[in-house]
Design goal:
The chain is mostly helical and about 100 residues long. It has one helix spanning about 75-90; strands at about 5, 10. Helices cover about 20% and strands about 5% of the residues. The chain is globular, with a radius of gyration of 15 Å. The N and C termini lie far apart (about 45 Å). About 20% of the residues are buried.
Length: about 100
């Protein structure tokens, strides 16, 4: 399985279990946070698909959520979505 940092998008060599105080070796962002979680979904209530999880206000900061599970390949999805959006914008403004 490949895991990626939500902030820098770089691949991480970690296990599926991530401690609350662990951070990305590349950009020093918190790893045990909503933005790296498989349940994170900005389109749902409280931006979390786990209905029993407590509300977390700062999604990019470390938290104590017991339901945290590191999302596999999330960094690649973010990168490809950004690239797709960039390509669409560039095609709109080409002369």
């Amino acid at each position: 399985m490949a895991f990626y940092c939500h902030h820098c998008g770089k691949e991480l060599s970690i296990g599926e279990l991530v401690g609350r105080s662990e951070s990305c070796p590349h950009c020093d962002s918190d790893l045990h946070c909503c933005l790296n979680c498989v349940f994170y979904d900005p389109k749902t209530y409280n931006e979390c698909r786990e209905s029993n999880a407590e509300r977390v206000l700062e999604k990019g900061r470390s938290n104590f959520c017991d339901y945290f599970s590191f999302a596999e390949n999330k960094g690649l999805a973010k990168e490809s979505a950004e690239n797709d959006a960039r390509k669409k914008l560039e095609s709109l403004f080409k002369k």
